[in-house]
Amino acid sequence: MVTPLVPGPAPRTPRTPRTRSVPPRTPSALPRNGALSVWPASTAPLADGDLAVGGVPLTELADRFGTPVYLLDEAEVRARCRAYRDAFPDAAVLYAAKAFLCRAMAHWAAEEGLGLDVCSAGELELAVTTGFPPEHIVLHGNAKSPYDLQAALRLGVGRIVIDSPSEIARLAVAVPEGGDHQKVMVRVAPGIAAGGHAKVRTGTDDQKFGLSLTDGSAHHAIARILDQPHLELVGLHCHLGSQITSAKPYLAAVRRMVGLLARVRDQHGVTLPELDLGGGHGIAYRPGEPVLDIAALGPRLRAELADSCAAAGLPVPRLIIEPGRAVVGPAGVALYRVLAVKRTGHRTFVAVDGGMSDNPRPALYGVRYAPRLVGRAATAPPVTATVAGRHCEAGDVLAGEAELPGDIRPGDLLAVPVAGAYHLSMASGYNLVGRPPVVAVADGGARLLIRRESLDDIRSRDVGL
Ligand SMILES: Cc1ncc(COP(=O)(O)O)c(C=O)c1O
Fold first, then answer.
1. Is the pLDDT of residue 14 over 80?
2. Which residue among 114, 160, 239 has the greatest number of ligand 1 atoms within 8 angstroms of its CB, and so is best to mutate?
3. Checking DSSP bridges between strand 56-57 and strand 51-53, what pairing results, if any?
4. Pocket probe mutation, ligand 1, options 81, 100, 117, max atoms within 8 Å of Cβ
5. How far apart are CA 128 and CA 147, in angstroms?
6. Residue ranges of domains in the chain
7. Any catalytic annotation for residue 392?
């Protein structure tokens, strides 16, 4: 009997009472549509062009914590976790920590009944040392270091997902003699192309993740794992890619993965009890962009899985999913101060006090955002502007073709919604600017989760001359 990952929602621990740092202003009750459709549900317009998120005015957040600053709407994160549990009541839902992790985020995920997907000893240790149950954690990685594997075994992670043939022997010898078997899964590349950009498509053979279904590498690895007395193969995994906005690739993946489960049963007499379909659920970064409908995906996946298993004569495996971006992305807002406005040729450049060191996504994937002026009412008609970062790199653009008021000027505050995922988790130390703080907003209060990286932090790592 395989211990299930994440048996159900954990009991809610009482929340630490927090002081109301900012007196709430009464937001005007506008429906969440149009320009605000990609903002957290709590977002409300205030007088003078300000916005409140989680009951906290953005201008006051900027004054109190400085800029750039990232805020996370705790209620939005929790609501998204619950939406997943509602849409996938029988599945284990693991939050993909690579999207964004800090201790509070790990607590929110645990309290809402989610497990965790991590891909390094760092993410794993942070989660476990803040109390996240290790048995509800899955470790990924196409190139796990010895340190990653040792940490996983020492802390007792629920599953390790094997991603290359050499990892099998490395892991098998690392499992302590006389200890428990380590539960593992195999990451399969099922030969399905899906995802919003070539750099985030991971379901095919021409990229670094997983073992090919098509050329037999996945099946070969499965056979080798089944021969290892210290490893217990509990299921198969695939992650097709990110920013997928249609259910179709997932349904195709179910069919192919069930085909492989049936082959394993036929050739080895083993019925694997789990199927992990990864994450990749698409969200809108700008109003009007398509979104993957999670509420519809759950029942469709369940039905496809039941049909495919019935056709193959297999019991239905426990489904596991690993959403990251769709849990935390829309809950985050980045706030920047405009430092310079320049008109060059036909272009208007609006340069802010952050950039590719806190959000490398536009430079990496050409992602487009919809920043908004906050803190004063716009008086001039909109212009199309390029919001540039402050870094010494011409490609340091945060938002190309942004619609901003024509009188945008230094000192203005710009807010970028959908900033919760793959910004700060991919942040760098470029130009020694220091990474921004993260502030949680909830019930009209704001509290610091991660402080701003200071020059002292940077200096303290620089230990030689
Ligand atoms: C194995 C795995 N699971 C889950 C995710 C989360 O993807 P997303 O944040 O797009 O949902 C990723 C992202 O790279 C991944 O590699």
1. no
2. 239
3. antiparallel
4. 117
5. 16
6. 34-73+330-460, 74-327
7. yes
Q: If you measure from the C-alpha of residue 177 to the centroid of ligand 1, how many angstroms do you get, rounded to a whole number? A: 33
27 close to ligand 1 (CB < 6 Angstrom): no
Q: Does domain 74-327 have CATH number 1.10.599.10?
A: no
34-73+330-460 against 74-327: fold identical: no
Q: What is the pTM of this model?
A: 0.94
CA of 200 to the centre of ligand 1 (A): 9
Find out whether the peptide bond into 14 is cis, omega within 30 degrees of 0: no
Q: Tens digits of per-residue pLDDT, 377-436?
A: 999 999 999 999 999 999 999 999 999 999 999 999 999 999 999 999 999 999 999 999
Thinking of the domain 34-73+330-460, which architecture would CATH place it in? Beta Barrel (2.40)
> 224-269: per-residue pLDDT in tens?
999 999 999 999 999 999 999 999 999 999 999 999 999 999 999 9
